[in-house]
Specification:
The chain is mostly helical and 107 residues long. The chain is 55% helix and 0% strand. It starts with a helix and ends in an 18-residue tail after the last helix.
Length: 107
Amino acid sequence: MTPRKAGVLAMHLPPGAQTWVALGHDAAWTNAEHLAALQVDVAQLANWQRGGGEGPKPKPISRPGDDLRATIRGRAIEAKAKAFLARQSAPQPTARKRDARGRFVKE
């Protein structure tokens, strides 16, 4: 079997397959499991709202792949922050002199 064929077969595994579970992929849960978790999340939020919104807001059930997405998102934010700080610390170009009418003056 070629690596391409193995990759195609792996991508078409059904949701809930142990391969997806081992990889922590979204497909580690079946659609029914995702819907059940969503129902629990909605019920918790609705009960919290009916209670006047007092106390801490309920947190949703963690899904497969949440940790991976948070890590990737965190790395992207860190990279953007570093780029922003690098731009801020870079020397700014000096402003060109202008005359009374606002035109640039040759130096």
